[in-house]
Amino acid sequence: MKAVVAENLVKTYNNGKVRALDGLSLDVEQGTVLGILGPNGAGKTTTVRILATLLKPDSGKATVGGIDVLSKPDEVRKVIGLSGQYAAVDEILTGYDNLVMFGKLYHLGAKSSIKRAEELLERFNLTEAAKRPIKTYSGGMRRRLDLAASLIVKPKVLFLDEPTTGLDPRGRQDMWGVIKELVQDGTTLLLTTQYLEEADHLANEIAVIDTGKVIARGTADELKRRIGGEHLEIVVEARDLVRSKSIIEEIVNVKAEVDESLNSISAPVSTGTAALVEVINSLSAVGINPLDIALKRPSLDDVFLALTGHKAEESK
User: Fold this and answer.
1) Range of the domain at 115
2) Pairing between β-strand 264-269 and β-strand 257-259 as defined by DSSP bridges
3) Sign of dihedral through CA atoms 226, 228, 233, 239?
4) Among 276, 280, 240, 231, which Cα is nearest to 260's?
5) For residue 185, what pLDDT is reported?
6) Does residue 239 share a domain with residue 218?
7) pLDDT at 236
8) Which of 96, 151, 207, 254 could form a disulfide with 130 if both were Cys (CB 3.0 to 4.6 A apart)?
9) Residue 189 pairs with which residues in a beta bridge?
């Protein structure tokens, strides 16, 4: 079952001069994570805002949990949670008071709001800081509290718009752990990010978007295979470059590339570690001992660069 479906979404600004979405279509299977990968300005946040009923498209249609986003926005809001790029919490209030307030805004009632706030504070490891004002929280703590607030009503579908923006590596790892727990509990997740490692780490599938449309989709491995397989990279002494290149080309049966400034040789391989072992043995047989050797798979950064001509982290 599709938990989220968007068909041919178009959204323009500035009297049509800026086209944020240009016929964007995507879907998310129930209980899975779809990562939307793209640079700043690609249309990620606009997509989330439309699906979360905060923005109306110029054309196209969308459903969340089988409910039409345009005709029944109030019903959609009952089944979704949303955490934006910046923590949407009151800095003056404590963490506890923020969550209780959100519970009451969702009409949970005083007792249920308190109970849910206490559950979430414990789950997100914020119990010790519960009675402190938010202005004393670190960036990672604020992000965790913001995510907790989005889970007050136990949503079936959760939208996370660049949830780890601004966090240090430790904070990002902590947030990834929380997100994995949510998915294990059965939450359907649509995650936007410009961090390639994040999409690779968390998403069942990845939709690459650029200039307001989906330009590629698949698992991380499927996307990587689109630009070729593994590459053998080897560094040798300068005197051994020519002979090593000839041996490698004979083994892999394709032309190798040489970087004389680094004394390195690179060539695509189709047999993975088998080619690596054969190259090492063949070089050793003629007295060549590599200074460094590696078998490298293409990264999502390589994929994005090949698809769009620019890196995912670049601003547009």
Assistant:
1) 2-225
2) antiparallel
3) negative
4) 240
5) 84
6) no
7) 95
8) 96
9) 33, 158
At 304, list the tokens: 């994005």
The total number of structural domains in the chain stands at 2
Q: Are residues 56 and 189 in the same domain?
A: yes
Q: What CATH number is attached to the domain comprising 240?
A: 3.30.70.100
pLDDT attached to residue 316: 39
Structure-token match 């939450």, residue found? 187
Residue 302 lies in a domain: no
**Mean pLDDT, the chain cut into blocks of 10 residues (316 residues total):** 95 91 95 89 92 96 96 94 77 94 90 94 92 91 88 90 81 83 88 84 92 91 74 92 94 90 88 88 94 82 72 50
Same structural domain, 35 and 164: yes
Q: Are residues 166 and 279 in the same domain?
A: no
- Dist. CA 189–CA 40, nearest whole Å: 20
Residue 39 lies in a domain: yes
**Of 189, 207, 225, which residue constitutes the final position of a domain?**
225
Structural domain contains residue 22: yes
- pLDDT at position 310 is 64
Cβ neighbours of 194 (radius 10 Å): 21
Ramachandran quadrant class, 218 (left: phi over 0; alpha: psi -120 to 50; beta: rest): left
- pLDDT value at position 315? 41
Considering the domain architecture, whether residues 50 and 198 belong to the same structural domain is answered as yes
Is the Cβ–Cβ distance between 125 and 143 less than 8 Å?
A: no
Contact 179, 191 (CB under 8 A): yes
Report yes or no on 305 lying in a domain: no
Measured in degrees and rounded to the nearest 5, phi and psi for residue 260 equal -65, -25
Query: Are 296 and 231 contacting, i.e. CB atoms less than 8 angstroms apart?
Result: yes
Predicted local confidence at residue 112, as pLDDT: 95
